[in-house]
Design goal:
The protein is an alpha/beta fold and 227 residues long. Helix content is 53%, strand content 12%. Keywords: DNA-binding, Phosphoprotein, Transcription, Transcription regulation.
């Protein structure tokens, strides 16, 4: 199946470069481009994009607000694309808030081409990109500043999880794939998928990225925990 992608970035050369690179792939179709978040939302909805490649800092509307609007649309708007954020380490807070809003992944703008293509395909297939070099640092940095009240509220929710679900949640937060979790816990991939579905339902999470946030906020994974 062809993945419909929209590229949103205020730098013409960057936007055009990404578009040309992605268009060269047989399974990716660049269906639109936009120079700011406001137009990005409009183009994404009109083209019914599967994945939106979203810059963070842009004029008129930044990538954070655009992500919120795309993933929490007004009544009657059913389209919700996957959002892949483009970031640098000096804007961690922006990206963390986008993750909480439902963004499915993050990449540095200078990431290797293969990593970008893999991220788009993983996200389009319903997964989330939890690259240790980016996402864990973002989560850990903000969790250090979260209030005790918020962490206590998350811990109360942990009471609904079974010991095995808690194990799976911990491994998700450490960036493990379903296959890696299955191998570590000596269970089948189908069993891991079942646990994942239960975690998403019990914790009212959209995807793996939001599960990772919950794990840090509840304290079952702490900043600096080895992967």
């Amino acid at each position: 199946m062809t993945i419909r992608v929209v590229v949103v970035d205020d730098q013409d050369m960057v936007r055009s470069g990404f578009a040309a690179l992605l268009s060269a792939q047989s399974d990716i179709d660049v269906v639109g481009e936009a120079p700011n978040g406001r137009l990005g939302v409009e183009v994404s909805r009109s083209t019914r994009a599967d994945v939106v490649l979203m810059d963070v800092r842009m004029p008129e509307m930044d990538g954070l607000e655009a992500t919120r609007r795309l993933l929490d649309p007004p009544p009657g708007v059913l389209h919700r694309p996957k959002v892949l954020m483009l970031t640098t380490f000096d804007i961690d807070d922006y990206v963390h808030e986008a993750l909480r809003a439902g963004a499915s992944g993050f990449l540095l703008k200078d990431a290797p081409v293969a990593e970008l293509l893999r991220a788009i395909r993983v996200i389009a297939a319903g997964g989330a990109l939890l690259a240790p070099s980016v996402t864990r640092r973002l989560i850990e940095d903000v969790i250090r500043r979260r209030s005790t009240w918020e962490q206590d509220a998350r811990r109360l929710q942990l009471g609904s999880l079974t010991p095995r679900e808690t194990e799976v949640l911990t491994l998700v937060a450490q960036g493990r794939s379903n296959t890696e979790i299955a191998e570590q816990l000596f269970v089948s991939a189908h069993t891991v998928k079942t646990h994942m579905n239960r975690l998403l339902a019990k914790l009212d999470a959209r995807d793996r990225a939001q599960l990772a946030v919950f794990a840090y906020e509840s304290g079952i994974v702490t900043p600096g925990t080895p992967a």
